[in-house]
């Protein structure tokens, strides 16, 4: 009996291993990005035509964190970028959005300006609480080469530090998608 169980576990490990060891560079031409993806984040294939990509990270205890990357092309005739705004102006955009809503279930807990690929990015964190569970959502908004990117990461407050560390590593390698040299 133990032999059958061991064989079943080995086969399960072999079949699941490729999906869980997806580490290295992840590129998506539709959403227009390339990033180094930590092996703990698994891409979810749900809609090849969508302008977003979702990754999941499983934590013990049954909670999964999700990371979504969305993109939207902007009018290339405008020379406006987030770099043109002061840090205060960028942070004021988020503050005013929260001041203008009466949504008491969503709290702004952090609001700052960071750099992504040498350009300003708006980074803010919101927190909601439902049934005694606190959930944090990290938002990163930035513009690169006429593409506006929105990255959102949703995680349980208990796993926040681990997820933020992964996000910081991913943002260091984030860049717009480029065709491989042999295709160009």
UniProtKB/TrEMBL annotation:
<dbReference type="InterPro" id="IPR002683">
    <property type="entry name" value="PsbP_C"/>
</dbReference>
<dbReference type="Pfam" id="PF01789">
    <property type="entry name" value="PsbP"/>
</dbReference>
<feature type="signal peptide">
    <location>
        <begin position="1"/>
        <end position="23"/>
    </location>
</feature>
<dbReference type="GO" id="GO:0005509">
    <property type="term" value="F:calcium ion binding"/>
</dbReference>
<dbReference type="GO" id="GO:0015979">
    <property type="term" value="P:photosynthesis"/>
</dbReference>
<keyword id="KW-0732">Signal</keyword>
<dbReference type="GO" id="GO:0009654">
    <property type="term" value="C:photosystem II oxygen evolving complex"/>
</dbReference>
<feature type="domain" description="PsbP C-terminal">
    <location>
        <begin position="26"/>
        <end position="175"/>
    </location>
</feature>
<protein>
    <submittedName>
        <fullName>PsbP protein</fullName>
    </submittedName>
</protein>
<dbReference type="GO" id="GO:0019898">
    <property type="term" value="C:extrinsic component of membrane"/>
</dbReference>
């Amino acid at each position: 009996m133990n032999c059958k169980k061991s064989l079943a576990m080995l086969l399960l490990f072999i079949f699941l291993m490729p999906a869980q060891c997806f580490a290295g560079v992840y590129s998506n031409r539709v959403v227009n990005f390339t990033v180094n993806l930590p092996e703990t984040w698994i891409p979810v294939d749900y809609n090849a035509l969508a302008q977003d990509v979702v990754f999941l990270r499983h934590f013990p205890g049954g909670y999964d964190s999700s990371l979504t990357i969305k993109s939207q092309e902007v009018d290339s005739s405008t020379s406006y970028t987030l770099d043109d705004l002061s840090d205060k102006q960028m942070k004021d955009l988020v503050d005013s959005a929260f001041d203008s809503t009466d949504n008491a279930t969503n709290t702004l807990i952090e609001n700052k300006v960071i750099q992504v690929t040498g350009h300003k990015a708006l980074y803010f964190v919101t927190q909601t609480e439902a049934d005694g569970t606190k959930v944090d959502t990290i938002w990163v908004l930035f513009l690169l080469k006429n593409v506006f990117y929105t990255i959102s990461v949703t995680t349980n407050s208990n796993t926040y530090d681990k997820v933020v560390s992964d996000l910081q590593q991913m943002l260091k390698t984030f860049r717009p998608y480029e065709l491989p040299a042999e295709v160009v």
